[in-house]
Amino acid sequence: MKSEDSVLAALAGYVDTLSFVALFGLFTAHVTGNFVLIGAGIAGFGQGVFLKLMAFPAFIAGVAVSSVLARRQQFAGPLYVASSLYSLQAVLLLAFCVSGIEIGRAVDANSWPTVLCGMAGAAAMGVQNAHGRLVPRASVPNTVMTGNVTQLILDAVDLLSPHIQADLKAAARVRLLKMTPAVIAFGAGAAGGAFGYRVAAFWALLLPFAVLAALAVFARHAHRAASVSTTAHR
């Protein structure tokens, strides 16, 4: 699907922002951002240090399970692996949603129900972070935008410079057109996640769950179609 990276970028922005506003500043997709918040918490600014610490093993578990699953299914083809990873992420995101609904509007950052809720979200986004590295396809990073924005600025400068060779400008233009939609989608998703939580609390996570379920079904159908086509040409 041509717009897959933009869809995933919007999903990452949505979930990351929702978890940030709902769970005391917890990052689930941009998990290394929690280092800053842990440092601030230790110094007495903010709260939820234990919650943010526990996000790391959950994120690692999501990446590790994704790796094992992808390696075991690699001979089935990339579309089959993609479907499995989408399904795994959807299940974890549903667990994030259900556990969030159970705790309601969280008031204790370090209670176990709140911590387990955050861990489910971090594990789900660990799967998405691993997905782009485990499934071979032309893609751009869709969970953290810092690198994309940096590259966009570099490419924009190259395009505006009169001293850059034509072939380098052409390459910069291709990257610019490829990365810009993902950056915009991430920003739109972030706004959507904040408004979604304001309107529907953790129920708002049913939207990205539905998106992932649809992507899983789409990838599985594409895999079956490709298998039938390969068989027919033998």
Whole-number count of domains:
1
The first-to-last residue Cα distance is 26 Å
Shape: globular
| Cα gyration radius (Å) | 19 Å
Strand content: under 5%
Main sheet, how many strands, which sense, barrel? none
The percent range for helix content is over 70%
| Secondary structure tally, helices | 8
Average pLDDT rating: 91
Runs with pLDDT <50, length 5+? Answer: none
Structural class: mainly alpha
Order of helices and strands: HHHHHHHH
CATH class: Mainly Alpha
What is the CATH fold-level name? Growth Hormone, Chain: A
Describe the structure.
The structure is a single chain. This protein is mainly α and 234 residues long. Helix 2 packs antiparallel against helix 3 and helix 3 (49-73) packs parallel to helix 5 (112-134). The two termini are 26 Å apart. It has a single domain, classed as Growth Hormone, Chain: A. Helix content is 76%, strand content 0%. The radius of gyration is 19 Å and the shape is globular.
Descriptors:
Growth Hormone, Chain: A, 0% strand, 234 residues, mainly alpha, globular
Question: Can you describe this structure in just a few lines?
Answer:
The protein has 234 residues and is mainly alpha-helical. The chain contains eight helices and no strands. It is globular and about 55 Å long.
Topology at a glance:
Layout: H1 4-22, H2 34-42, H3 49-73, H4 78-103, H5 112-134, H6 146-160, H7 166-200, H8 206-232
Helix pairs in contact: 1-5, 1-7, 2-3, 3-4, 3-5, 4-5, 4-8, 6-7
